[in-house]
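Technical note accompanying the year-one report. For the benefit of new consortium partners, we illustrate the data format agreed upon in the data management plan: each record pairs a sequence with a structure-token string. No post-processing was applied to the example shown here.
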Amino acid sequence: MDKLDMIFERMLSSRIFRNREVLRPDHVPDELPHREEQILKLGAILAPALKGARPSNVFIYGQTGTGKTAVAKYVLRRLKAKAGDKVITAYVNCREADTNYRVLADLCSFLDIHVPFTGLSTAEVLRRFIKGLDRKGKLMIAVLDEIDALVKKSGDAVLYHLTRINASLERSRLSIIGITNDLKFTEYLDARVKSSLGEEELVFPPYTYEELKDILDMRAQEAFHEGVLEEGVIPLCAAIAAKEHGDARKALDLLRVAGEIAEREGATKVTEEHVRKARRELEKDRVVDVLRTLPLHSKLVLLSVYRLEKLRIREITTGEIYNLYKELCKALGLDPLTQRRVSDLISELDMLGILNARVISRGRYGRTRRIRLGISERSLKEGLMEDPSVRGLVHWSLLSS
């Protein structure tokens, strides 16, 4: 038996997992503990749909891993079961569909309207969506998840049209549920879009340590064979996630990856040491995942800092970053953002831990920020090289240093 066969045999004989899929972030369980208040409030907002009336648009926000998407999908699943074919539900992840064209094309797919990947104007796709929805003669409730990614990259034009679309519909109606992790997201919106989208608002607080433990206990009963988890595993996963803003997604990932590491090692139990190994593995991957999903202008700001560091500039300031950022925009044929907006992007990257921006005093010359990379060069290259827009600029930064 060769080494690959041994790996496969070890997996076949493993008694760790019963159903690992219930630990995935996109799994929506039959129960969502500690989100009863949010479930009931969203249910009350959407309930008029059962009588054919258009519910108010809803804006949901809270930090990552606080159950926003799970609650929206759970309530819509229950509503759909009650309403039958009177209601059409749609879900679009705007981090994946991050252009106005793509969002409208995805919404069209829920109406069985084929839209080519490219080739039409956005106005034409919108026209087809309106015509197709009105032909159905039904209410459509559309969830736009991570809506901030769309607006930061492509603006709020599609939201403007979608929140006003009912004036163009005769037989059908559309309601929007917008979900974001960015608590400052509404600052990016036109005032008219803000008032239309935010007819109702829901805020999701972070989970506490005890709440995370309950969630993990419930999922673990389905996910693992009995007696596989050592006593301290779930408390440790909950404690780590509670320190990171009460992120249930982080807690579930830790528990799943700890189980997978135990499985790969041929262990019969999942231990606290497996959780610690899982944490190291996830933290390494998380930086790369965040970099991959950054908006293009944030990537250019990050590359500007990287390039200045390669040039061994001792004090990297916002002004120096902005000058190089404008050069990179010119190289890609992009209109640069204002220096104030770039300063905001630096603050956001600092908040994510990707940059370190430390305020220093220059005496009578006032204060400025000294900015450095907060991640390894390896992570930066791995996270940005997949984007064809900036791949050449990464090579340029390396070769011309």
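Partners are asked to follow this layout when depositing records. The CA atoms of residues 229 and 270 lie 5 Å apart.
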